Amino acid sequence: MSDIISVSIPPGNYNALTFATVLSRAMTTASLHSWVYQISFPNGYVQANTGKFTITVTGNGNLPPGNANQPSLIFDTNSVYEQMGFTQGTFAFTSNSLESPNVICMVPETNILIHSDICDNGSDDVLETVYYNNNQPLSNATFQCNDVLNWSKKLRTNQSNTYTFSITDEHNFELNLNGRNVLFSIILFRGAYLPPMTPQNSH
Description:
Elements: H1 16-30, E1 36-40, E2 54-58, E3 72-75, H2 81-84, E4 89-92, E5 97-99, E6 111-116, E7 126-131, E8 165-168
Antiparallel strand pairs: 1-2, 2-5, 3-4, 6-7, 6-8
């Protein structure tokens, strides 16, 4: 038999070490069998820094026969798998240990999608993609489109003059702005049709 439990992590900004400490405590507290979890991160001053978490478990030999004593981590779409260095899916411990297959991600959202029904994209409603790689936690995101023509979207030509906007991550989960204001400007323009470029043969 196996038990599936959820682990809750307090919201906030973390670095690798504080996240490992808080997550170790949360996993240990949530354990139904008093198993103890410890998460370590390489010390770059004395060893190679792989950027990965190593998770170990102790006290897991106390189950009755027929019960699995190697835990597994299960990650769905709405979980912290990127922060822990995993992908979506199930990952089983081996010999009481599990290393994240990927480097952990402690940066804020790397992609911000601005959605609106003002644009007529056909397949989606993404008005703009903002790449947010270098901003510090608790800071403001700023963006300016430097190529208006190539990043422009076709205007939806219906009779409505009321449009909706939303901001999500790349998985279409709405972002919590924590009380911050959002300000953006939209440029509407009529451009000449540019035919597709045809490769020219040189002789």
